[in-house]
Write a structure and sequence with these properties.
The protein has about 190 residues and is of the alpha+beta class. It has helices at about 25-30, 35-45, 75-95, 100-105, 110-115, 135-150, 165-170; strands at about 10-20, 50-55, 60-65, 125-130.
């Protein structure tokens, strides 16, 4: 479920979910999981930490530790979604997915159309929950890591077998496709600086 409430703080650890419009499997259609990794790279370069994630064909769950930032966290996430949206549309155009592009154009509401928005790639807002305890982070990690095993059809039989997830790190002790920072290291990181 999406919320339109702004994150009221300029740092902290957050469980974030954003979804492709109408649950379209755009990441798999476009073979574009790397777009999320590129956004993660940008976040790291800005001093933030990727604690855990799963990139599903049609949505992303991530636990991100945001270091003190003058830019609102909602803006950071919104900008990431916007850049990924442009790139996803470009990929769809290169694959001649004209019908899908047309459908995404038709999904743009009148208000956004007046602001020159051309395609509805992601649901307009995103869900977030502040992670205040280690237990809550562990609960959310378990939830996101089992996502590929519980969907229909299953994407993996066991969490650590799903490529686009941090499960391999937390379950098998090996960095997966994208290197993350363990939530255990957060106690040594001052996010308010």
């Amino acid at each position: 479920m999406s919320v339109r409430k702004a994150i009221p703080y300029n740092n902290g650890v957050y469980f974030i979910t954003f979804t492709c419009t109408q649950w379209l499997p755009l990441f798999s259609i476009c073979e574009a999981y790397s777009l999320v990794y590129k956004w993660f790279d940008h976040l790291k370069k800005e001093g933030h930490y990727i604690i855990g994630y799963v990139i599903m064909p049609h949505h992303v769950h991530a636990i991100i530790a945001f270091k003190n930032t003058p830019i609102p966290i909602n803006t950071i996430v919104g900008n990431g979604k916007r850049i990924m949206a442009y790139e996803l549309v470009d990929i769809l155009k290169s694959k001649n997915r004209d019908i899908l592009i047309h459908e995404m154009q038709q999904m743009v509401n009148d208000t956004d159309r007046k602001r020159n928005k051309l395609h509805e790639v992601f649901e307009p807002s995103f869900d977030w929950k502040e992670c205040r305890t280690v237990e809550f982070i562990q609960q959310k990690l378990k939830y996101i890591h089992y996502n590929p095993c519980k969907c229909n059809p299953k994407l993996a039989n066991i969490p650590e077998d799903y490529l686009h997830s941090s499960a391999k790190f937390y379950i098998a002790g090996e960095q997966g496709v994208y290197p993350i920072t363990s939530y255990m290291e957060l106690s040594d990181i001052n996010l308010s600086l």
